[in-house]
């Protein structure tokens, strides 16, 4: 993920289906949106975690992340 993906990430996190399926807080401020995005972006760049954006034609349409890593396996 890159800084340019911020709006797409926030849109995904605000999606009703995503909110029903995953533990995502209600994003009620730009400050919270920025904090959540920065956290996901930082995790996507960390060698200690697995988080990656899913892109179609250069647009972020989703992302995946680990819930547990054990000896290099997700």
Written account of the structure:
The protein starts with 5 loop residues before the first helix and ends in a 9-residue tail after the last strand. The protein contains three helices and two strands, in the order αααββ. 41% of the residues lie in helices and 18% in strands. 8% of the residues are buried. By secondary structure, it is α+β, with helices and mostly antiparallel strands. The mean pLDDT is 87. Strands 1-2 form a two-stranded antiparallel ribbon. The chain is globular.
Global structural class: alpha+beta
The outline comes out as globular
**Would you count the extended β strands for me?**
2
The main sheet orders its strands as 1-2
From the N-terminal CA to the C-terminal CA, the straight-line distance is: 19 Å
Number of helices: 3
Unreliable segments of 5+ consecutive residues = none
Largest sheet: 2 strands, antiparallel
Helix content: 40-55%
Order of helices and strands: HHHEE
Which percent range describes the beta-strand content?
15-25%
What is the overall pLDDT average? Answer: 87
Alpha carbon gyration radius:
13 Å
In short:
The protein has three helices and two strands; from the N terminus they run αααββ.
Question: Keywords for this structure?
Answer:
alpha+beta; globular
Helix and strand arrangement:
Elements: H1 6-14, H2 16-21, H3 30-44, E1 51-56, E2 59-65
Antiparallel strand pairs: 1-2
């Amino acid at each position: 993920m890159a800084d340019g993906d911020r709006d797409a990430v926030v849109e995904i996190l605000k999606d009703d289906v995503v909110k029903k399926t995953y533990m995502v807080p209600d994003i009620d401020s730009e400050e919270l949106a920025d904090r959540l995005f920065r956290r996901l972006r930082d995790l996507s760049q960390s060698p200690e975690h697995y988080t990656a954006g899913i892109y179609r034609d250069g647009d972020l349409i989703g992302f995946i992340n680990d819930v547990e890593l054990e000896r290099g396996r997700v």
